[in-house]
Structures are given as C-alpha cells and as structure tokens.
Amino acid sequence: MTAKGELLYEGKAKKVFRTDDPDRYLVEFKDDATAFDGLKKGTIRRKGEINARLSALFFQMLSRRGIPTHFIEQTGPRQLLVRAVEIIPVEVVARNIVAGSLAKRLGLEEGTVLKRPVLEFYYKSDELHDPMINNYHIAALELATEAQIKEMETYAWKVNELLVEFLRPADLVLVDFKLEFGLHHGSILLADEISPDTCRFWDGTSGEKLDKDRFRRDLGGVEDAYEEVLRRVEKLIGENL
Length: 241
Ligand code: TMP
What we know:
CATH superfamily of the largest domain: ATP-grasp fold, B domain
Family: Belongs to the SAICAR synthetase family.
Pfam families: SAICAR_synt
Bound molecules: thymidine-5'-phosphate
CATH class of the largest domain: Alpha Beta
Organism: Neomoorella humiferrea
GO biological process, one term: cobalamin biosynthetic process
Number of strands: 14
Helix content: 25-40%
Keywords: ATP-binding, Ligase, Nucleotide-binding, Purine biosynthesis
Number of domains: 2
Order of helices and strands: EEEEEHEEEEHEEHHEEEHH
C-alpha cells in the first residue's frame, strides 16, 4: 500500500498527491466534468472510475509497445500510482478526422477525414484559455527544448498509430485526442490521462459520439457512452494488451 500524502495539485478532473516516495505520485480521478474552460460544470456518474481504468489500460498497452509513460499501477478503483513528473505546459493534440475546434477554426465539416493527420500544440494556461501555439512559441517561451518538442511529436504520432489500431477491433474510431507529457529525472514520459475526456471516440458503424462531446453539447447518454467505451476496451484486453 502506498500512503496518500500531501495534496500537490487539484485540477478540474483529477487530484495529485505526494507519497512517501518522492519519485511517485498518486492520481485520483474525479467524477467532476467541466467544459469551455470551466464555464460548464457537472458530474458524470462513475467517470472517475472509468477514466482511471481506461487510462491504466491505455498506458499499459502503450508502454508495452515502447512508449514511456508515467503509469506504474492501478492502486484503487479511481486511483493510479504514477512516476512523479513535472508536466510540460504544452498540450499535444493529434487529429485524424475534423471535429471540435478544428471544424470551427478552418470552416471544415465535422467528420471529414483529414488527408493527413494533424498535430497541434496548445499552451496550458487557464488565464489565457489554452491558446494554440507552434514550435517557435514553445522555444521562445522556453516551455520545452527543441529536442523535447521533437520527442513529443514522435511519441504523439506513435500513440496515434497504436491507439487507432488497438481500437479498430472494438469498432471505435479515434477522431482526435490530447496528450500531456512530463519530465521525470530529465526524461520525457507520457503523463496525465487517456480517456473519453481527452479523446474523441466515434462508433465505427453508427458514427455515434462516445466521449465528452455528449456532455459538452448536451447530447444526453453521457454515462452510457463512457461505460460503453470501457466495456469495449476491456473486451480487447488479453492477447491484445
Ligand atoms: P478541440 O477540438 O476542442 O480542440 O479538442 C481536441 C481534442 O482535445 C479532443 O479530443 C478533446 C481534447 N481536449 C482536452 O483533452 N482538453 C481540453 O481542454 C480540450 C479543449 C480538448
């Protein structure tokens, strides 16, 4: 048992605690949900448990395929033990299909398959509402070194490839997703979470949205969508993982 120490950070969806080992943190996933920079607030029943489980499964799958992650083990229904990282304040978004802010920004129709997948960076800053930035901004603001940017890009493309392939047999289409990376003793690890809060998943047959867009856009059936993603991903476990 790892004892929960001082609360280090509380975000919109998670709390991070120190442990008695300075190299390890505990991450606790909450049922709270926000959208549009916290303007819209709510809770999604069982979200904490579902996102903790899904993140654990995705991180395990990815680390077995060569992506270094912060994940160590799941220590409770909504709790993960992770390597202590300092989060790089850059969100990395990968997109395969047009949706959300890309549809708006470029006037493209949601659902259009991109001729080539796209990577975007956003500056993690609540006050500034996470503005989109590029490699030059990241270097100028010293948010990460050029080598670290390259590494994040390489991992993001690899994660995209691995997740798309992994989810295909579950008839889940990976539309887009957001990753965060952290530094642990100088090395970059994939961190944060991978869940329906941070990815867009569409049913491959019906096109139904199975992610946080159901909450953002008041589509109803939010809990059922999260449960459905978990059910399908758990079915993939075994030889696939
Ligand atoms: P966007 O289309 O709103 O820019 O979102 C792109 C992807 O990033 C989508 O899968 C949802 C995820 N995302 C987050 O994880 N956190 C956020 O705060 C936002 C805005 C998006």
